[in-house]
Design brief:
alpha+beta; Aminopeptidase; five-stranded mixed sheet; 5 strands; globular
C-alpha cells in the first residue's frame, strides 16, 4: 500500500500548526527566528495571497512538514515564476522519498497556475537536498544568491 502525500492549503486557523514547523526549520539550520515576525509575515501572506502559497505537507492524516512558494515575475524566464522559499520535512519522516514527492506536487501546482519556472536554493553543505533537487530536474546555474536586508 502506498501512502498518500498531499499539500494542504493553509488559512489563518492553521497558524498554530504552521509556526512550530517553521521554528523547527529555523532551528535545524541555525537561522534567526522570531515567532512575532513569522506570524506577522504569514498574516501578510494571507492578506495578499497573490504573493505566494503556503502548504502543510500531510502523509495520510499526519502533518509532516510545510512548503512555502513565493510568486514573482521574471523577464529571464518569460513571465510568472515561483521560488520554493522553504521546504521542511520533520526529521522522523525524512529518508522515505517524501522530498521528491513534495517537489512533484509543487510542480503540479505550479503547472496549474501556469507558472514558467520554479527556483529554489539549497545550503551548500546540504548535499542530500542538492542531490534531490538535481534528480528532480533543477539546474544549478552556478550563480550566487546574494541578499541585502533592508529592514
Amino acid at each position: 500500500m502506498t501512502e498518500t502525500l498531499t499539500l494542504l492549503d493553509t488559512r489563518l486557523s492553521d497558524l498554530d500548526k504552521i509556526l512550530p514547523l517553521i521554528q523547527d526549520f529555523y532551528q535545524h539550520f541555525g537561522y534567526k527566528y522570531s515567532k512575532a515576525d513569522k506570524e506577522r509575515t504569514i498574516l501578510e501572506l494571507f492578506e495578499h495571497p497573490t504573493k505566494g502559497c503556503l502548504w502543510l505537507i500531510a502523509k495520510e492524516q499526519k502533518i509532516v512538514g510545510y512548503v512555502f512558494l513565493s510568486l514573482y515575475f521574471s523577464l529571464e524566464f518569460g513571465g510568472q515564476t515561483a521560488f520554493i522559499d522553504e521546504l521542511f520535512i520533520l526529521p522522523g519522516d525524512r529518508g522515505q522519498g517524501l522530498g521528491s514527492k513534495v517537489i512533484g506536487l509543487v510542480e503540479q501546482k505550479c503547472r496549474q497556475l501556469n507558472l514558467r519556472a520554479i527556483h529554489l536554493e539549497s545550503e551548500i553543505t546540504n548535499e542530500r537536498a542538492t542531490a534531490l533537487y538535481l534528480k528532480s530536474g533543477f539546474v544549478d546555474y552556478n550563480r550566487r544568491l546574494m541578499t541585502k536586508t533592508l529592514v
